[in-house]
Amino acid sequence: MEPFFYHLQQRYCLSDLAIKELVILFKPVTVKKKEIFVQPGLNERYVFFVCTGLTRAFLTREEKNYTAFFSFENEMLDASPISTGKTTQSISCEAVEDSLLYRAPKLALENLFQTSLELSNWNRKLLEERIAYFNNYFLNYFYEEKSVQYKKFLEEYPQLIQRVSLKDLATYLNVTPQSLSRIRAEI
Question: CATH code at 12?
């Protein structure tokens, strides 16, 4: 079994049968650094997981990018594999590093969730993880002073500082790159 699927099985206590069903659906896709592989306004038919590498999801408003979240190894890029009825994406996804992703059609996953209670529960766990992530962001980062945000970010994600450009980190913290440089100099 490939390490990616072994990790899923161990992390979510999935049975061999459930993993076999996921192996059938998920196919590997390689993306190069800076490659945008999900674009807003398009009908996004796939769910992505990061096997190796790092990606970021971002919104573009008034010609500025705002990073919503980063996805590390063995993390999903979406809130939930089941679609919310929306037919278009409002977020872009970009590879921060050369990355190996696993991609599965949303419709096939939705059908699988309707026939497998185990995988339906797995989908629920994925959704709970994403909700917890956003709750943490809004409760512990968003309303803090920017220097406090940065310090918390360093404590929670020390490996990310070596992997993410200051520009992308600034868009995540919602500051200008110049302000982030000043904050870093003060610390």
Answer: 2.60.120.10
Structure tokens at 162: 């070596």
> Quick one: the chain helix, strand, coil %, rounded to 5?
50, 20, 30
Residue 92 in any domain: the answer is yes
Q: CB count, 10 Å around CB of 7? A: 15
- Domain for residue 170, yes or no? no
Task: Name, in order, each residue with C-beta under 8 angstroms of 26's C-beta and a sequence gap of 6 or more.
Answer: 5, 49, 102, 103, 104
Q: Where are the alpha helices (DSSP H) in 16-159?
A: 16-25, 106-115, 117-137, 146-156
Q: Chain centroid to CA 169: how far?
A: 15
Structural domains counted in the chain: 1
What string of pLDDT tens digits covers the 187 residues of the chain?
A: 789 999 999 999 999 999 999 999 999 999 999 999 988 766 578 889 999 999 999 988 888 888 988 998 988 886 555 555 555 557 889 999 999 999 999 899 999 999 999 999 999 999 898 888 888 888 877 788 889 989 988 888 888 888 999 999 999 888 999 999 999 998 8
